Amino acid sequence: MAATGLTPSTESPAATKSATGAVQSKKRTRNSSGFVAPNLKKTKSAGGSSLELPVAERATEVGKVYVFGTGDCAQLGLGEDITLRKKPANVAVLNDQNIVDISAGGLHNMALTSEGKLWSWGVNDQKTLARSGDEYVPLPVEGLEDVKVVKVACSDSMTVALTEEGQVYTWGTFRSAEGILGHSKSAEVQEAPSIVSGLEKVVDIATGTDHVLALTSSGRVYSWGNGQQMQLGRRIVSRRMLNGVTPESVGIKGIAKVGAGSYHSFAIDKDGKTLAWGLNTYGQSGDDSAKVELIPTASPIKSLADETIVDIQGGEHHSIALTKDGRIFGFGRSDSHQLGLGYTVEPGVEDDKTSHKKAIRHPTEIKGLPKIKSISIGGNHTLALSEDGDVYAWGFGEMYACGNGEEEDVETPQKVSGQQIQDSRVIKVAGGGQHSVILAVSKKQE
């Protein structure tokens, strides 16, 4: 990454630009998924019966890739001369590559083909692209010729790929508040895809700013990376921070899906109930007490107990949960309208216009949306995909990552439109640090 590792920001998003114009505190991405809690298969073993999740499957519908937002760090993939797109713009070089899925990191992106191959573009300072060549245009990832990928996730300086065989490959590095932490105990920066040993039958992955979650078919969750904000679900002693880069169990079972925010983590159990751990300074981990700044181990989000959750993801300091019936709830930091509620403090609470520490700590339903089938969270903006194939965006607007053509924050969900997608149905969304990526198909071809 172009920016160095940062501690979790408590400043206004508009005040976190570096001298180069990069917004350092917003580099992350979150994954989108139309996940529905699966029917778990009971399998007998010597110790009795257990639950087994189905293997992960690659998406099959092919679309064209479109980007919008700020691209001064190559994240748009439109060439060195195009560093800003206020409305969705087609990444033409990928049009013939049969792209079925996308992932956006802080400053880099991945596109997955129907054949299980990856294309990458964006910042390559820590080898997150797993290839040589021009960063400003998509090119094939190298080193995965003998495997087929079903899902990919991007963090700030790391990329994670899940294969058909349930194996996990990673490349790049983790960062901490002090700088580069390392990819593993043996490599500071991993230039080529490397298999993660000790993990088998993985069915889901998720990434935060500098940590990774993996879910196995037995419903167990493993975490690794930087653990300074308890996002690993275990305590990492500061003088032995490298211990965090080795995957270890979070200690929970019966899980059907994982999700992550920049410095916090989520798990959804087989009944659609949620657990969270990590940084909670704005209530983004689901504890609405202002006194609880860290949640060290996986804990139930009690305020969502009455809902059946099928996906939950986070941005830098806010979180969005998607219910089985297509409603969404927001909680966490709200000063740039990350939650899309139209207000930045709890109703009845006096609004201090000068405060950059505004939060809605209790999960609150976001109104004014059709039935939603998937979500993806950028650093301080949110994307929601409706069942009809429309994208809605809201949150921090200065980087144009909401796709509405305006530089102001977007207070409530607004449908993303543009000449290049006016006759298209969107099938995937991915929110990055300063940009967004969508995958769409032409309605004329349907």
Automatic annotation (TrEMBL):
InterPro entries: Ran_GTPase-activating (IPR051553), RCC1-like_dom (IPR058923), RCC1/BLIP-II (IPR009091), Reg_chr_condens (IPR000408)
CC per GO annotation: cytoplasm
Polar residues: bias regions: 1-23
Region annotation (Disordered) ranges: 1-49
UniProt KW keywords: Guanine-nucleotide releasing factor, Repeat
Domain RCC1-like: 64-438
GO terms assigned for molecular function: guanyl-nucleotide exchange factor activity
Repeat positions for RCC: 63-115, 116-165, 166-218, 219-271, 272-325, 326-388, 389-442
Protein name per UniProt: RCC1-like domain-containing protein
